[in-house]
Amino acid sequence: MNLVRQHAKALLANGYNFIPIIAQRKAPGTFTGGAWHALPNWTQFTDRQPTPDECRLWAESPGGGIGLTCGHIVGIDIDILDEYESDMVEGLARQHLGATPLIRFGLYPKRLLVYRCEASLPTNKHKPIEILGRGAQFVAYGIHEVTGRPYYWPEKAPHDVRLEDIPLITAEKVEAFLTATAQLFPDLFAQGSRSFSGDEWRLTSPLGVAAPLEAVEAALAHLPNDPHDW
Fold this sequence. Notes:
Layout lengths: L2 H12 L3 E4 L7 E4 L2 E4 L13 H7 L6 E5 L3 E6 L4 H15 L5 E3 L5 E6 L7 E3 L2 E4 L4 E5 L29 H14 L8 E5 L2 E5 L8 H9 L9
Antiparallel strand pairs: 1-4, 2-3, 4-10, 5-7, 5-9, 6-7, 8-9, 11-12
Helix pairs in contact: 3-4, 3-5
């Protein structure tokens, strides 16, 4: 079944703005003349939902995906292929931003967490972590271009959860999350370094501070304590 036909009604009812995605790609697209093309002026859907006519047109596109536009929502994109580090960063996100039920996987262990915001936050790239804010979008449903498998939501998906029921975040909370991440994993950021203090080496972030004990404890608490997987 076409994904727009399958999920449009629920996404509209739950308050999300969405767009069609080119089959097995990440870019917004429209299917015309028997081929996929870039979707012109797709950022208009940052501030409005598609009309019934647009949904009917998109529902005829073969193999396409669905993207959610950011503005009222924010995507925290954890682009880390190390499972341990990705888990730890997710733990910090949940600590500082809240326990969102919306977490999406494509190429595991990379992941994306979805939150709500009242004042649109700008897109901010702190490789390998991206804050997808106003002017950005992400694939919610579709086939991943690398794995050839569907994106998946292990807990709940946007068609299950109303926009108003996901955690509300602010720019200050995002800054606190990024600061905690830089403190815990300074090597993830381009300016990270090691410094010597007294008789021990200390990991320092671009902000020049060492990872506090509470940040390490909070991140470790997110990991399962399985003695067979040590």
